[in-house]
Amino acid sequence: MKLSLTNFTFFIFIATKVFSQEESVSISGSIYSSNKTVKDIHVVNLNNRLGTISNTQGSFEILAKEGDVILFSSIQYQNKKITVSKYNIESTSIITTLVPIINILDEVFLHGLTGSLDVDFKKTPKDTTPKANFTYKLSDLDKKLPGDEFGYQKDVNAESFTNPVYLAGGAQGSKYNKQLENERALKRKLEKMKEFPYQLRKRLGDDFFIKSLKISKEKIYLFIDYCEFKDISTKYYNNRLLEIIEILKEESSNYNKIKD
């Protein structure tokens, strides 16, 4: 594909502007405490105000850029802040360890005891707490309790019984469900498209672009974007890496001719 010099200059300007604004990357992380993964930890990027929660394997994903501060918080562990480094951006990973919060109760001193159980037991004050107005019988053990409404689900969808639109039910609830699914699917697709250039560069390595394709280091992202007309991002997520490599080799020749 050949472009005129004017069009290509305009393309370089637009691509450079886009990539300069898209500095955030998706960072995967793991949280540990006492050599075990920790779930249900709140993870918040204090700069862009995006947050998530670690799953049952102690893993999470969050968007961040170099210099952002990530806060890890939980009522069971001491809060911890980590500043995203260049290494975190290049490796797209963060591994951290949290310290449990240990609550130490004040000492309790008992006064007026003799040390004799018989004597001290007789001196025990009467319990003035009001008694419950119900009693249990042995026959109650044979009663069958109603089943757990959500027992068949491994993970209960809290939104289904807290969101007023869900509670409304009927067609309105179904419409909301479909709209929410579509919005989430679109968001996932956009996130994957934004992460693609970083993932491809990391997967193939800079030497492949610089030495094999003769693409300068500062032009790698521009070249990847240049090749997108052949839908290489879709091929990447369909595990067709060899086909992408052939496309990159073929298009590098055209790209270098335009560049020169």
Describe this structure in words.
InterPro entries: CarboxyPept-like_regulatory. This is Carboxypeptidase-like regulatory domain-containing protein. This protein has 260 residues and is α+β, with helices and mostly antiparallel strands. Among the domains are: 25-97, Immunoglobulin-like (Sandwich), CATH 2.60.40.10; 181-259, no CATH class. Helices cover 42% and strands 16% of the residues. The chain is built from nine helices and eight strands. Strands 1, 2, 5 and 8 form a four-stranded mixed sheet that branches. The protein has a four-stranded antiparallel sheet with strand order 4-3-6-7, with no helix packed on it. Strand 6 and strand 7 (77-83) form a beta hairpin. It is elongated. The protein starts with a helix and ends with a helix.
Summarize the entry for a quick read.
It is built from 9 helices and 8 strands.
Salient structural properties:
four-stranded mixed beta sheet, CarboxyPept-like_regulatory, 8 strands, Immunoglobulin-like, four-stranded antiparallel beta sheet, alpha+beta, Carboxypeptidase-like regulatory domain-containing protein
From the N-terminal CA to the C-terminal CA, the straight-line distance is 14 Å
**Radius of gyration based on Cα positions:** 30 Å
Q: Find the structural class using helix and strand composition.
A: alpha+beta
- Give the amount of beta strand, in percent: 15-25%
Shape: elongated
Poorly predicted ranges (pLDDT <50, ≥5 residues)?
16-21
The largest pleated sheet is described as: 4 strands, mixed
The level of helicity is 40-55%
Please, how many helices?
9
Q: Please report the total strand number as a whole number.
A: 8
Mean pLDDT: 79
Order of helices and strands: HEEEEEEEHEHHHHHHH
